[in-house]
């Protein structure tokens, strides 16, 4: 298998038995160059194992570079589609939020009406009780006198 056709689904294992992750360099000398690197890097007291997947760009053939460009374009297209999906989801959630706010306003209005009706019933009941007590008081007063 040539270096330009490495299957990035495969994993690499270092001499300590660690699975090496696929990493991508972001340096000016090796922009977007992929490699497997051990988690026990030199900075962490390890030995710094790594294996290049991509050849250096100055040694890369035109087909490899074209494939990398196409892979990059596909990634950009996937990200654009994801952004569009997220924007559509955001718009849908905004619409649902507006609908729910309208429903909440209607429910608050109904709640106020129910409270008013309950309060009015309490006032009516209180009036009846007061009238009844007044009648009892008057009767009691005239029975005493």
Automatic annotation (TrEMBL):
Transmembrane segments: 125-142
Residue span(s) of domain GRF-type: 14-56
GO MF annotation list: zinc ion binding
PROSITE patterns found in the cross-reference section: ZF_GRF
Organism domain of life: Eukaryota
Record keywords: Coiled coil, Membrane, Metal-binding, Transmembrane, Transmembrane helix, Zinc, Zinc-finger
Coiled coil: 69-117
Entry-linked Pfam families: Zn_ribbon_GRF
Protein name according to UniProt: GRF-type domain-containing protein
